[in-house]
Amino acid sequence: MASTALPPHLRADVQALWDYHDLHHELRPADVGIGLGSHDLGVAACTAELYHQGYFPRIVFTGANAPTTVERFPRGEAVHYREHALELGVPDGAILVEPTARNTGENITLSRKLLEAREIKSVVLISRPYQQRRAYATCKKLWPEIAVTCASQPLPLDEYILGIGDVDRVISMLVGDTQRISVYAEQGFAIPQDVPDTVERAFANLIAHGYTTRLLA
Q: Residue 195: exposed, middle, or buried by beta-carbon count in 10 A (0-12, 13-18, 19+)?
């Protein structure tokens, strides 16, 4: 059974990465909320909650499957997100589904294509807490004219780990997303983001402790 206990000697490093990826955007009303597919059903719950709070009148759920989600969401991430949002009271007519995106870049470009017949000037991107920075950098590169803010379930680190049920998975995903901030900017997939020295040190230390399963080759 997977552990949910964060190792005390790694807490400061994991917290540093967790805090770095949360952009702490102040939300404002937008034309659409885009829920980015992943293994985390909390993305759909957060999107539904923001819809009910009136932040946007329409939702796009985007995502096919990754190897880490196919067992949990066999019909695809976006499809399962839609079903969960319906259970949470979002009307079916408010939801669009983009079921083919395989990565964050495709989440953005295919959602943009789905919405091209509509006059969209602003979006809220809803993601896992540690995906905010990468989602923002990707959107600013691939959809530069759109006004974008980012949101996630407002959970503290330990509560998020408990909800996912696997501390090693969360740490590995944090490490992987931190690497992608620099690598994707270098490859032209995202705008550059500053990476503070404290984050670089925490990233290196977690790699040294073996959290490498989500690293790019």
A: middle
Q: How many CB atoms lie within 10 A of CB 75?
A: 12
Do 101 and 107 contact (CB within 8 A), yes or no? yes
What b-and-e string marks burial along 1-33, b requiring 16 or more CB atoms within 10 Å of the CB? eeeeebeeebeebbbbbbebbbbeeeeeebbbb
Domains identified in the chain and CATH numbers: 8-20+156-208 (no CATH), 25-151 (3.40.50.620)
- Compute the distance between CA of residue 164 and CA of residue 48 in angstroms, rounded to an integer: 19
Instruction: Report residue 17 as tokens.
Output: 């990465």
Q: What are 6-31's pLDDT values in tens digits?
A: 999 999 999 999 999 999 999 999 99
d(CA 44, CA 192): 28
Picking from 157, 159, 161, 128, the residue whose alpha carbon sits closest to that of residue 4 is 161
Write out pLDDT tens, residues 87-128: 999 999 999 999 999 999 999 999 999 999 999 999 999 999
Return the C-alpha torsion angle 48, 156, 132, 9, nearest 10: -150
Q: Residue 35 — φ and ψ, nearest 5°? A: -90, 115
Strands (E), the chain: 32-36, 59-62, 95-98, 122-126, 147-151
| pLDDT for residue 96 | 98
Predicted confidence (pLDDT) per residue in 162-172, tens digit: 999 999 999 99
Strand partners, 35: 61, 126
Are 179 and 211 in contact, with CB atoms under 8 Å apart? no
